[in-house]
């Protein structure tokens, strides 16, 4: 039976890593956001110094847009009621620039230039668009630039179905042929009651039934995170689910044997799926 020890060497050798950051990590109290980003840029600087390539997939544009409107209106909060799709798209349009400026202010301190990539499902409909997107990622990485990815929420209608970018991060990992997807969340990993599961080599229906839905400001939850990992398994891409509220969570994932939850199966060879495989495999994902 496989244990986390069996994957330590392959994790250490992971060359291309996609890191997914949820809305909760970049919204709320300013001091908490700053503490998180300080640790994040330090950990990514260390990984890059080790020769690893990093891509960020970040939620938070809608949350940042809401905050802008609250600040502009001078009220403590927006009126209660369900946010419409048009309002969410408008919040994203308002908040995307603020979110990127926030990242720029921190990554510039450790001399890491950043670039923004926004895309949606339609950008993967044709082989040429898929190839262009993949080539853009590769060129940025070759130049030493950190791509920061979000769905094009201001014009897209798919965001509600992608689980706060959990599935989008899996799509990005598949497009670039990443070795590892690392999802930062607000819990210590996959929990079965009070027990944290250190390793999954497969995701069963029973496992899915134990996964919880969204909590906090995002639209995802453990359900979408564990399914993002499940979608990547056939392509030999590993997934780590870790508590982003812990100090230097990314560094701890690589240095501590049982930090977070790892989803990996060495029986599947690593490969990059085609555009048509992504369309059929990833967008048939069942929402909870």
Automatic annotation (TrEMBL):
> In which compartments does the protein localize?
Cytoplasm
Q: Which EC number applies? A: 2.7.2.11
The residue ranges of the Aspartate/glutamate/uridylate kinase domain are 15-241
**A single cellular component GO annotation:** cytosol
Residue numbers binding substrate: 59, 153, 165
Keywords for the protein's UniProt record, in alphabetical order: Amino-acid biosynthesis, ATP-binding, Cytoplasm, Kinase, Nucleotide-binding, Proline biosynthesis, Transferase
Q: Name one Pfam family in it.
A: AA_kinase
Listed GO biological process terms: L-proline biosynthetic process
Q: In which pathway does it act?
A: Amino-acid biosynthesis; L-proline biosynthesis; L-glutamate 5-semialdehyde from L-glutamate: step 1/2
Q: Which Gene3D superfamilies match?
A: Acetylglutamate kinase-like
Q: Keyword Kinase: yes or no?
A: yes
Which Gene Ontology MF annotations are present? ATP binding; glutamate 5-kinase activity
Which residues does the annotation say bind ATP?
Answer: 20, 219-225
Signal sequence span is none
Q: Which reaction does it catalyse?
A: L-glutamate + ATP = L-glutamyl 5-phosphate + ADP
Q: Which NCBIfam families match?
A: proB (TIGR01027)
Function noted in UniProt: Catalyzes the transfer of a phosphate group to glutamate to form L-glutamate 5-phosphate.
What is the similarity comment for this entry? Belongs to the glutamate 5-kinase family.
Record protein name field = Glutamate 5-kinase
